[in-house]
Amino acid sequence: MLSARQTLIREELEAGTGAAIGMTVDGSKSRTGLRIWFADLEERHGPVAELRPYGLKGYVVTLGFGAFAGEVVRRIAGAGSEDVRLARALIASIDNSVEVEVHGQEMADWKITTGDFRMTAIIRNLPRDPEIALTEVSRDTIVPMMAAMAELIGYDIIEEDGHGEPEYEGAELVTTVRRRERNPRNRLLCIRLHGEVCACCGLDPRETYGVAGSIIEVHHLEPLSLLKEPRPYDPARDLAPLCPNCHRAVHSRKPEPWSLEELRELMADPTGKAGVL
Questions:
Q1: Average pLDDT over residues 199-212
Q2: Which residue range forms the structural domain that includes residue 214?
């Protein structure tokens, strides 16, 4: 069953983490499983998630590191406080019905300092339909687990920065804080924290467009370029879901975008005659 649905699982993980995913069927134990890793790091050199059936209608996901992942573990151990904060928030966003445990550590302040790190998630009472069940497990549990690792490693969208070719360190893009708004993990976390309803106009795209409604965008409430001094990144207060129209409207004022409150006032009185703004 797992081997026949590798494409489904890979698509969910790549969309959620922003990184290419590798996987292989593992028949070394009594119940066949999948081993999942970041393709450019290879299975032995980075984090590996192992997915196996658990009980009659469940799965267990075990996240650890390959035998030669020392360099990546050292990179993770040196991650900045902002990346650690987002990684922990991603794990905390997993539904309470899933039993998540970091071996030998408290969930509130887990960290990775050695290759012995292990995180386990047990998902029970899934739908009988195997495809629906695996979609839920992939999207709601494996994605945040692997996305947390991607955040700590420093994966990001490869894009031009306006100053020539993108910078590379080995095979990875050097991450800069200015790309935070385009980070695919932000969309994942924003939706988990705030839902998919536009924070300005109240549009629920999925109700309006059905399967074509996955169009909510992530808005950074305080533009990173306008920060007078660095401050801790708080995904709960720094992100808001906006429909494409409201997101474009917010950014129609430059260099400082409209606040959500200002945009709501404009929508209530498009003529501006009330003199609020």
A1: 92
A2: 182-268
